[in-house]
Amino acid sequence: MILIILFFTFCRVSGVIYQLNETEYVKMPPIFHLDPYESCIQQTGGIYCIVEIDLVADKESQLLDMIHEYSDWKEVHFNHSLLHYGICLMKSCDIQPRTTNSKDLNVVVEKCLNTSFWKEYKLKVKLNEDVICHSKEPIYHIETGDIVIAVVCFCMFMINLAGSVYDILIVKNNAGMQWLLCFSVKRNWYKLTEGSRENSDNQFQSFNGMKVITIFLVISIHSLLPFGSFIDNTHYYEKMFSKIQYHLLVDGTVVIQTFFMISACLLSYNQMSSQKDNVTWKMIPKKILLRWLRLTPPYVVVLAISTTWLRFAGSGPLWQKMIGQEMHDCRRDGWQNMLYINNYFDNTRCMGHTWYLAADMQLFTLGTFIMVLTKDLQRKVVMSFIFIVSLFMAPLHTYFQNLYAHVIITPEVAREYFVKDPTFNNSYKRGHTNMTCYILGLSLGLLIYKLQQKQFAIERYKKYKYLVWATLPMIVIIIYCSSLFYLVGVTPHVIIRAVYSGTYRSIYGLILSALMFGMVFKIENIYRPILEWRGWTSLVRVSYSAYILHLTLIQIPTYSRTTLNHITIPQVMSTCVGSIAISFLAAVPLWLFIEAPVNQIVKLLTSSDLKDKSQLR
Fold it and tell me: What's the pTM value of the predicted model, to 2 decimals?
């Protein structure tokens, strides 16, 4: 009976090669290759081309069959039949083209590579896309948009400078033009660091640690993506998928639900704490507008730079193909980002990590409607209905679109930065597929408020601190359960994948709810002191800017490389730590000059009395 169940539960993949020894592996053409870049373009008439090619054969080829069978295990292996090469035409092809026309260069490059591949591997190639070529002549030139963005940034700098000088030399006794003082770097620096100097009794202080640690994990995962592209030890990279510690990081994409949980919990709790009798639907657009104004200023600055000056931040054989494409996509699709609907549009490289901001804005809008327009029993019914419906969202996508149960960071997905991954596009980044944890967060906020109003006697329940301690091991177990989808030779049936896709988020949300509940009511004293460390306060204030900036900062050195990368564990670790450090350091000036001043201006404009305004001083 067990064998029958397993037979119908799993379908074994045939005709797949799961492992190759080094002797067999080196018979395949290298997936990535870069000719020397600087020496090529410095030559007179030197042209360097980036090309993607498919391996083909005119007749039966044992080598090509082996390549296809090895590549069929796409969860772990690269597509070894799709190669990515950087070619110096004068060196590799021994020619100097008289034209830079794309179609003519396609013919030249394909003919050149066919000659070399037939000679070495008895295979031929076919171009997968048009070649991208350039010489030492400048690729990009300063345009009107660049000048406009530079002037705007310069004006923002001058306003901050004026506010700082005004605060230091003129203002006395905190009396002065409040709008200008919002741009005082001195005051904003004090606001940034005051949390680490003063103790706080904020009951939600542990959320600061949760947010920052989650940001650390997200940046660490994203810092690994460059190791999936243009490396010289691809076999080593593929074998990393068999290491259990690797899965703890790459299968931990569910941790992004922490942000949704915290955001929803604070939304419902704050709404209940400030609730008045005159709550009306007119409050909804105001709340959404304030949220938009809170998120957008630093976002639009980074987006504007991505569409303009970012293309001048580096150079190299990969720069035009990758950063140039992102610039083009941001110019075309930037309006989607500003409306926070970009997570419902695919095939774009424009700040792909900001799908979370769009999903969060959409769920915040949903949560605001629920909290403002419903009360008591009605609210419970509405939230219960939405929660039940949300449990079927991801499974339906998974079943009918034949997706993975969760986002699997395969070698090809890492190389493409998720742009073409169906699971990421259809099940992971949509707002409606992330409703489950958001509703759990709303419910948790309401529960915390209700228990506090009833003077909840937490002392009676501190014996359950072991359940809170168990939350961290349970989260690790959930992450490792996701790695089961890498099993050699076994592909879970689509029903199994659908069920898992609908349950692992909700289970994670329930476990995290227990942890958050324990932190708020101070049930235990092991996790809580760590998460309530005062040092998190300053870090959490710049964490939003760090999140916006980090992927751009990772891409700049990645696509400025002129040689293949070589993966080692120390290099991976140093890259993760370095990415976190530079992201938060770069976020400080963005927070000081843009995020903090604009947020204070918004508060100043929406303050209803002088007392509120005095708090901005």
Answer: 0.91
